[in-house]
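Morning. Coffee machine broken again, so started the prediction first thing and wrote up yesterday's gels while waiting. Chain of 128 residues, entered below exactly as on the submission form.
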Amino acid sequence: MLAIFGLVTLALGFACGGVLLATGFGFMAQASGLVLWLLFPTLIAVGYTLFVIGAQGPLIRSVSTASAALLLALAMAALVALVGRAIGLLPSVGAGAGPSASLWVVLILGVVLGPIALVVKRAPDRVD
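Came back before lunch.
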């Protein structure tokens, strides 16, 4: 039960990161406020922790790998958007441009939390 609750919480955290990313790309209106900035890392961390507490070894490794891949993919997409804005391939102001701060949030948190999930993946199985 705790593992399922953790997975749902983790999925909501990834959804918050996706909205932050979409806002930064300009696909969504200014929907990313402070609430999403706080919910993105909090839901990821809490959901992942609850999942690890309630799940078994092989499943923990699978979800850790998937979480790390998703976090690093979000970070890479944010990096592509920031570089695209810097070199002029994407609009940085005006129509279609969202705030770059949300891209920075996704980039930094994805680069920090993604490798943490990979470290947990390599942790030995817990003994019950």
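Residues 57-86 form the longest helix (30 residues). Going to sketch it on the whiteboard this afternoon.
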